[in-house]
Write a structure and sequence with these properties.
Shape: globular
Distance between the termini: 42 Å
Strand order of the largest sheet: 1-2-4-3-5-6-7-8
Number of helices: 11
Oligomer: single chain
Order of helices and strands: HHHEEEHEHHEHEHHEHEH
CATH architecture: 3-Layer(aba) Sandwich
Largest sheet: 8 strands, mixed
Number of strands: 8
Radius of gyration: 18 Å
């Protein structure tokens, strides 16, 4: 594992996941958002020497903000193989016993170095119920132990496995969507491009929640929200160093999808952004590039929201609305 100087406060490191310690005093935050940020600041993590593990444990502390877990028809886990023969886990959320259902592959956020099946479990239960789709959450391997493109390869392998096993899983193989938040949004759109261009798999649509698309960290929103709330520029720089330690990969279109030359033929997309999110502008730029390539895009910005609100539906009403919007979009694009 790549070592980071653990004299860096874990809040600084965890900023590359969510919780920035410095607030932008010019922002007008709703009482709900203030409550969520107070929750984040109160997360208590045991002292550990390994800063990466501290950051991951800190991120797990976000789980209660999604609200109580919904009951759902069935949940199961399986281990599947990646292209290098290693295994990783997936979690399958089934909303009903209906024999043939559409499917959604979900790639979680966490700046490519954190997140798990558990960090996104609660919103995905709701997503499965509301969309009427089987949701398959992918526990791709994380940086820095597994830098780019290992996690991406896991996501591609998960898609191939779902297509191969569709009949057994009760999935309509012609009705598969991709979805992800933040770093998972980057993975989702790259997998969509690879499916379209090289894998011969038809993806019906993609849902990208405040996706990472650009490694330059140079947009207006990165300058405006360099000190948070939630994501910070310092944390983002750390995250990219962990994910792409070989600098030649930093501007690879499979790492930074905004740099892809040809986006034509990709499936329609819903892109959700947050007004007070440093990732906002690169997500908007990606939407513009998709539209320029002839791809149908619905772009929704949630006013007054911060990065991560999709996972905060137990505190922030807009988080629940974002899950509902995503579910409605998936249901309407079958």
């Amino acid at each position: 594992m790549k070592k980071i100087n653990h004299t860096i406060l874990f809040y600084d490191l965890s900023a590359c996941i969510f919780a920035g310690k410095n607030m932008n005093n010019n922002l007008v935050l709703s009482p709900e958002v203030d409550k969520a940020l107070e929750f984040i600041r109160a997360i208590n993590v045991p002292e550990m020497e390994d800063s990466i593990l501290v950051g991951r444990k800190f991120y797990e502390g976000f789980i209660p903000m999604a609200g109580e877990p919904e009951e759902i028809f069935s949940i199961e886990e399986q281990a599947i193989s990646s292209s290098d023969g290693s295994t990783f886990n997936i979690r399958i959320y089934r909303p009903s016993g209906q024999p043939l259902l559409p499917a959604v592959l979900y790639f979680h956020g966490g700046w490519f170095n954190a997140g798990s099946l558990d960090t996104h479990d609660r919103p995905l239960r709701t997503l499965a119920r509301l969309s009427g789709s089987i949701v398959i959450s992918v526990d791709y391997r994380l940086a820095p132990e597994y830098p780019f493109p290992i996690g991406l390869n896991d996501c591609c392998a998960a898609l191939e496995w779902v297509v191969d096993q569709a009949a057994t899983l009760g999935i309509d193989a012609a009705n598969i969507a991709l979805m992800g938040d933040s770093a998972g949004g980057a993975l989702a759109t790259v997998v969509a491009r690879k499916a379209t261009v090289g894998m011969g798999i038809n993806i019906r649509c993609q849902v990208l929640i405040y996706p990472v698309t650009d490694s330059s960290l140079s947009t207006k929103s990165w300058k405006q929200f360099a000190d948070g709330p939630n994501l910070t520029l310092e944390g983002a720089e750390i995250a990219w160093d962990l994910y792409t330690p070989d600098l030649i990969n930093r501007n690879h279109p499979d790492a930074a999808p905004l740099l892809a030359i040809d986006l034509s033929g990709l499936p329609p997309a819903l892109i959700i952004t947050a007004e007070y999110d440093p990732l906002r502008d690169e997500a908007i730029q990606y939407a513009q590039q998709l539209r320029s390539a002839g791809v149908e895009v619905k772009l929704t910005e949630y006013a007054g929201m911060v990065h991560g609100f999709f996972q905060m539906g137990g505190i922030i009403a807009a988080g629940r609305q974002a899950v509902e919007e995503a579910a409605a979009y998936l249901a309407s694009n079958r």
